[in-house]
Amino acid sequence: MAANQGVSYVVCSRAGTPSPFTDNEIGLCSKCSAVLQHRPDVPRVPLLCIECALQFMEEQGEGTIYMSEKQLQEALPYLKPQES
Ligand SMILES: [Zn+2]
Q1: pLDDT band of 48, cuts 50, 70, 90
Q2: pTM to 2 decimal places
Q3: CB 56 within 8 A of CB 64
Q4: Dist. CA 34 → ligand 1 center (Å)
């Protein structure tokens, strides 16, 4: 899949995170250089770790990010407002 499907970033899990797939590829977060794993068929755009993706969303940066259903599930706990 060569087209970037109109997205600017792909959100990836950290390398080493349990995954049902054995053919994940390794890449680096385009902001913090964290080592990430991603499916081979993700759009060919810069990668973001979940933490940087959340920061990106908070800042309302331009562009669209791509997150799989599973990654959204992982990110949800971070998205909930936290009382401190
Ligand atoms: Zn990052």
Answers
A1: very high
A2: 0.71
A3: no
A4: 5
